[in-house]
Design brief:
- The complex is a heterodimer of chains A (272) and B (194).
- Chain A has 272 residues and is of the alpha+beta class.
- Chain A has helices spanning 4-15, 21-33, 35-49, 62-80, 98-130, 135-163, and strands at 168-174, 182-187, 192-198, 207-215, 218-225, 233-238, 248-255, 266-270.
- With 194 residues, chain B is an all-alpha fold.
- Chain B is globular, with a radius of gyration of 18 Å.
- Classes of the chains: A alpha+beta (272), B mainly alpha (194).
Chain lengths: 272, 194
């Protein structure tokens, strides 16, 4: 059984995180109930922290500051999403315009999805209480809620890609064959990419949309996807090493299995 | 001992900045980052021996500051202590994940780091660094080595005992004596530091 003095002797090691895990747990439990040890530990922590001054001061890359602020801004946007929905706006590479990216990301569902989710939950409860004959409506709303949840999960995954070191985003605009279509492609420095598209015409039987990475006129095939009834679709892919910098992204309509060389019309295209 | 001290209001200001961060003030977070990035990054590189790892941890630390600023209680500690403790804790966690083998393998990375330029001497007070280094130098060598192995290399008392081939009880005594002496040398000057 350890005494107060025994615990006090452990404080120096604790502030240096040099205690064995079991001793650290016992000490923490004691400190919670011992004002004298708490005060002593606080003093020792203050002194120990000064050892940081003995290391050589070094300047981090300016990108660290940008990444921190982009990340907290994203969390802030997410917190505010229920009261401050934002419309789509011009989208540029993430590194150049972090604020616009998040405004644009919001347009793809994170903000609206949260609003819709809350509203539908309220509607669901109300309907359930009022009339059992609305079972069909309940089923429809439930399906929509599930879809909304999936949307929120996708947006979160996209946000994580963007806030990872070296995360970037590009916007793809609809061409003259699909003027109402838009898409966003987010990717990290390892090439892991997520595409979210909306407003696409439904694909004919046996056909699907295929993503392309174009660099120096070389067209590298990506994965294929089929949009839902509303023209929205998403896919995850791995961008080829040679296409991670300054590449153009395009989406064409191709046979469902995908092709190695594009054959169909371009529906979506990023700016160079 | 004379030090290049911060204005008297600086400590209050850091507390206010943390309270502002807790209210969601991004500009306050940016000011805290600007004030402490150099010393914290120096500490993280010293612990992790890698600029890339240190930048990752530095980013993580300030995201944690953003999320946890509301937990900061000025009655229980100083802002500087809170920031350093958070940074060091994250770095030591990462170091222990690597394991001792990786730690040894990356030992040469320190040489590639770039010392901060003279232009930044306003950010890190040279006098403060000298004061801490002088205090460390006044410790008996075996006490100083024990503290440095724990603080910068993240070793536990048992690991230090094994590394120095010394009895565990001896290491415990050296560590306790070293910290107590350091407090005697620096404890009265806390207000002179950030």
């Amino acid at each position: 059984m350890m005494t107060h003095e025994n615990y006090k002797d452990l404080l120096a090691a604790q502030v240096l995180t040099a205690l064995a895990a079991d001793d650290a747990r016992l000490l923490n439990s004691h400190v919670e109930s011992c004002a004298e040890c708490r005060s002593e530990m606080s003093e020792l922590e203050n002194v120990t922290a000064l050892l940081a001054y003995s290391a050589e001061p070094l300047e981090p890359s300016t990108k660290v500051r940008e990444r921190i602020l982009a990340s907290v801004r994203a969390e802030d946007q997410s917190d505010r999403s229920a009261r401050d929905p934002v419309s789509p706006n011009n989208v540029r590479l993430f590194a150049a315009q972090p604020r616009n990216v998040w405004v644009s990301l919001g347009s793809f569902g994170a903000i609206a999805a949260a609003l819709v989710f809350v509203a539908m939950m309220i509607a669901l409860v109300t309907l359930w209480q009022k009339n059992r004959s609305t079972q069909n409506e309940l089923a429809r709303l439930t399906a929509q809620i599930n879809e909304t949840k999936a949307q929120v999960d996708r947006d979160r995954a996209m946000g994580e890609l963007l806030t990872s070191p070296g995360g970037k985003m590009a916007k793809l605009a609809g061409t003259n064959v699909a003027p109402g279509a838009q898409a966003m492609l987010a990717y990290d420095k390892s090439g892991h990419a997520m595409l979210m598209a909306k407003g696409l015409p439904s694909a004919p039987e046996g056909m699907a949309y295929q993503l392309w990475y174009i660099k120096d006129n070389k067209k590298m095939p990506g994965k294929v996807f089929t949009p839902d009834a509303l023209g929205s679709g998403m896919l995850e892919d791995q961008i080829p090493d040679s296409a991670r910098e300054a590449a153009i992204f395009a989406i064409t309509l191709e046979p469902k299995a995908g092709v190695q060389v594009p054959t169909g019309s371009i529906y979506l295209l990023s700016s160079s | 001992m004379s030090l290049g001290v911060k204005p008297e209001s600086a400590e209050v200001s850091d507390v206010e900045l943390l309270h502002a961060v807790a209210r969601g003030d991004e500009a306050a977070l940016a000011r805290l980052y600007d004030a402490y990035r150099v010393i914290l990054f120096g500490l993280l590189v010293r612990i992790l021996n890698s600029r890339e790892e240190a930048e990752d941890v530095l980013q993580d630390v300030f995201i944690q500051v953003w999320r946890r600023a509301k937990d900061f209680d000025e009655n229980r500690g100083r802002p500087f202590t809170w920031l350093v403790t958070l940074a060091r804790s994250r770095a030591i966690d990462r170091l222990r994940q690597f394991g001792a083998r990786q730690r040894l393998a990356t030992g040469a990375a320190q040489e590639q780091t770039e010392v901060v330029s003279d232009a930044l001497s306003d950010t890190i007070k040279v006098a403060q660094r000298d004061t801490v280094r002088q205090a460390l130098a006044e410790l008996p060598e075996e006490q100083r080595n024990t503290l440095v192995l724990a603080y910068f290399d993240g070793l536990t008392q048992s690991e230090i005992a094994a590394k120095l081939n010394a009895p565990l009880g001896t290491i415990k005594t050296r560590m306790r004596s070293g910290i107590i002496k350091l407090r005697a040398l620096l404890g009265s000057q806390l207000e002179n530091f950030g």
